Amino acid sequence: MSPDTRLKLGVALRILGLIMPAGTLPVAATDWPIAVKTVVSSILLFGFEIMLVPAVALMGKDNFERIWAGAMRLLKTLKPAGGVSKTRYKVGLYMLVGPTLYAWIASYAPSWLPEDYVLRVWVNLGLDLVTLASLFVLGGDFWDKVRALFLHDARVVLPS
Fold first, then answer.
1. Alpha helices (H) in 30-116, listed in sequence order
2. Considering Cα of 53, then 59, then 61, then 64, what sign does the dihedral take?
3. What confidence tens digit (pLDDT) does each residue in 19-78 have?
4. Is 31 helix (H, G, I), strand (E, B) or coil?
5. Predicted TM-score (pTM) above 0.85
6. Which of 55, 79, 77 is nearest to 67 (CA)?
7. How large is the angle between the packed helices 117-138 and 86-108, nearest 10 degrees?
8. Is 23 exposed, middle or buried (0-12, 13-18, 19+ CB in 10 A)?
9. What is the pLDDT of residue 79?
10. In this structure, are residues 139 and 82 in contact, taking their beta carbons and an 8 Å threshold?
11. Cα dihedral sign for 38, 44, 45, 50?
Protein backbone atom coordinates (compact mmCIF):
# COMPACT_ATOMS: atom_id res chain seq x y z
CA MET A 1 0.00 0.00 0.00
CA SER A 2 1.38 3.44 -0.92
CA PRO A 3 2.22 6.00 1.74
CA ASP A 4 -0.43 8.38 0.40
CA THR A 5 -3.14 5.72 0.70
CA ARG A 6 -2.01 4.88 4.24
CA LEU A 7 -2.06 8.57 5.10
CA LYS A 8 -5.62 8.99 3.79
CA LEU A 9 -6.83 5.93 5.69
CA GLY A 10 -5.11 7.13 8.86
CA VAL A 11 -6.67 10.58 8.55
CA ALA A 12 -10.07 8.92 7.97
CA LEU A 13 -9.62 6.97 11.22
CA ARG A 14 -8.70 10.19 13.05
CA ILE A 15 -11.80 11.95 11.70
CA LEU A 16 -13.93 8.96 12.74
CA GLY A 17 -12.36 9.23 16.20
CA LEU A 18 -13.32 12.91 16.33
CA ILE A 19 -16.92 12.16 15.41
CA MET A 20 -17.38 9.18 17.75
CA PRO A 21 -17.98 11.19 20.96
CA ALA A 22 -21.07 12.74 19.36
CA GLY A 23 -22.60 9.25 19.36
CA THR A 24 -22.95 9.31 23.15
CA LEU A 25 -26.05 11.52 22.94
CA PRO A 26 -28.13 9.11 20.81
CA VAL A 27 -26.97 6.20 23.00
CA ALA A 28 -28.11 8.05 26.12
CA ALA A 29 -31.57 8.49 24.57
CA THR A 30 -32.08 4.75 24.02
CA ASP A 31 -33.91 2.42 26.39
CA TRP A 32 -30.95 0.06 26.69
CA PRO A 33 -29.91 -1.18 30.13
CA ILE A 34 -27.71 1.23 32.07
CA ALA A 35 -24.68 -1.09 31.96
CA VAL A 36 -24.85 -1.37 28.16
CA LYS A 37 -25.31 2.40 27.80
CA THR A 38 -22.31 2.98 30.04
CA VAL A 39 -20.01 0.67 28.10
CA VAL A 40 -21.07 1.90 24.65
CA SER A 41 -20.97 5.56 25.71
CA SER A 42 -17.51 5.09 27.22
CA ILE A 43 -16.20 3.54 24.02
CA LEU A 44 -17.71 6.35 21.96
CA LEU A 45 -16.53 9.05 24.35
CA PHE A 46 -12.93 7.84 24.18
CA GLY A 47 -13.16 7.20 20.43
CA PHE A 48 -10.53 9.83 19.67
CA GLU A 49 -7.97 8.10 21.86
CA ILE A 50 -9.05 4.61 20.81
CA MET A 51 -8.69 5.41 17.10
CA LEU A 52 -5.29 7.06 17.65
CA VAL A 53 -3.37 3.80 17.93
CA PRO A 54 -4.60 2.12 14.72
CA ALA A 55 -4.42 5.42 12.81
CA VAL A 56 -0.76 6.00 13.75
CA ALA A 57 0.09 2.35 13.07
CA LEU A 58 -1.61 2.52 9.67
CA MET A 59 0.01 5.82 8.67
CA GLY A 60 3.53 4.72 9.55
CA LYS A 61 6.58 6.66 10.64
CA ASP A 62 7.12 8.46 7.33
CA ASN A 63 3.63 9.97 7.30
CA PHE A 64 3.84 10.78 11.01
CA GLU A 65 7.03 12.75 10.39
CA ARG A 66 5.39 14.49 7.42
CA ILE A 67 2.41 15.55 9.56
CA TRP A 68 4.69 16.59 12.42
CA ALA A 69 6.81 18.77 10.13
CA GLY A 70 3.68 20.43 8.72
CA ALA A 71 2.33 21.12 12.20
CA MET A 72 5.64 22.64 13.28
CA ARG A 73 5.68 24.87 10.17
CA LEU A 74 2.16 26.06 11.05
CA LEU A 75 3.08 26.74 14.68
CA LYS A 76 6.11 28.78 13.63
CA THR A 77 3.85 31.08 11.58
CA LEU A 78 1.72 31.69 14.69
CA LYS A 79 4.72 32.80 16.75
CA PRO A 80 4.15 36.31 18.12
CA ALA A 81 6.37 39.16 17.00
CA GLY A 82 9.42 39.90 19.14
CA GLY A 83 9.47 43.63 19.80
CA VAL A 84 6.22 45.56 19.57
CA SER A 85 5.47 49.28 19.66
CA LYS A 86 4.63 51.05 22.92
CA THR A 87 1.02 51.58 21.80
CA ARG A 88 0.54 47.93 20.87
CA TYR A 89 2.02 46.88 24.20
CA LYS A 90 -0.37 49.15 26.13
CA VAL A 91 -3.37 47.87 24.16
CA GLY A 92 -2.27 44.31 24.87
CA LEU A 93 -1.95 45.04 28.59
CA TYR A 94 -5.46 46.52 28.67
CA MET A 95 -6.74 43.47 26.83
CA LEU A 96 -5.06 41.21 29.40
CA VAL A 97 -5.89 43.13 32.58
CA GLY A 98 -9.46 44.19 31.67
CA PRO A 99 -11.08 40.73 31.50
CA THR A 100 -8.99 39.53 34.45
CA LEU A 101 -10.15 42.40 36.66
CA TYR A 102 -13.75 41.97 35.50
CA ALA A 103 -13.68 38.26 36.38
CA TRP A 104 -12.09 38.97 39.74
CA ILE A 105 -14.58 41.71 40.66
CA ALA A 106 -17.56 39.72 39.30
CA SER A 107 -16.69 36.85 41.62
CA TYR A 108 -17.36 39.23 44.54
CA ALA A 109 -20.24 41.07 42.83
CA PRO A 110 -22.13 38.46 40.79
CA SER A 111 -24.87 40.99 40.09
CA TRP A 112 -22.53 42.45 37.46
CA LEU A 113 -22.93 39.26 35.41
CA PRO A 114 -25.97 38.81 33.17
CA GLU A 115 -28.88 36.91 34.75
CA ASP A 116 -29.39 34.72 31.66
CA TYR A 117 -27.12 31.66 31.83
CA VAL A 118 -26.51 31.48 28.08
CA LEU A 119 -25.63 35.17 27.88
CA ARG A 120 -23.31 34.78 30.88
CA VAL A 121 -21.49 31.92 29.12
CA TRP A 122 -21.09 34.02 25.97
CA VAL A 123 -19.76 36.97 27.98
CA ASN A 124 -17.24 34.73 29.73
CA LEU A 125 -16.22 33.08 26.46
CA GLY A 126 -15.73 36.50 24.86
CA LEU A 127 -13.58 37.66 27.77
CA ASP A 128 -11.50 34.48 27.52
CA LEU A 129 -10.93 35.09 23.81
CA VAL A 130 -9.87 38.69 24.50
CA THR A 131 -7.41 37.42 27.11
CA LEU A 132 -6.00 34.86 24.67
CA ALA A 133 -5.74 37.46 21.89
CA SER A 134 -3.91 39.80 24.26
CA LEU A 135 -1.05 37.32 24.54
CA PHE A 136 -0.48 37.63 20.80
CA VAL A 137 -0.90 41.41 20.79
CA LEU A 138 1.70 41.73 23.57
CA GLY A 139 4.28 39.92 21.45
CA GLY A 140 7.14 37.53 22.03
CA ASP A 141 9.03 39.72 24.50
CA PHE A 142 6.06 39.52 26.87
CA TRP A 143 6.19 35.72 26.67
CA ASP A 144 9.81 35.92 27.81
CA LYS A 145 8.73 38.04 30.79
CA VAL A 146 6.07 35.51 31.74
CA ARG A 147 8.59 32.69 31.35
CA ALA A 148 11.00 34.55 33.65
CA LEU A 149 8.38 34.42 36.42
CA PHE A 150 8.93 30.68 36.60
CA LEU A 151 12.72 30.77 36.55
CA HIS A 152 14.36 31.08 39.95
CA ASP A 153 17.56 32.61 38.62
CA ALA A 154 15.88 35.21 36.38
CA ARG A 155 16.80 38.81 37.18
CA VAL A 156 15.22 42.08 36.14
CA VAL A 157 17.35 44.34 33.96
CA LEU A 158 15.78 47.79 33.73
CA PRO A 159 16.69 50.10 30.85
CA SER A 160 18.81 53.07 31.92
1. 34-45, 47-77, 86-108
2. negative
3. 999 999 999 999 999 999 999 999 999 988 889 889 888 888 888 888 889 888 887 777
4. coil
5. no
6. 55
7. 150
8. middle
9. 67
10. yes
11. positive
With beta carbons less than 8 A apart as the criterion, state whether 99 and 113 touch: no
Question: N- to C-terminal Cα distance for the chain?
Answer: 65
Sign of CA dihedral 57, 63, 65, 71: negative
The string over 93-111, giving b where at least 16 C-beta atoms fall within 10 Å of a residue's C-beta and e elsewhere, is eebbeebeebeeebeeeee
Closest CA to 16 of 40, 50, 41, 66: 50
- For the segment 101-122, what is each residue's pLDDT rounded down to a tens digit? 988 888 898 887 788 888 888 9
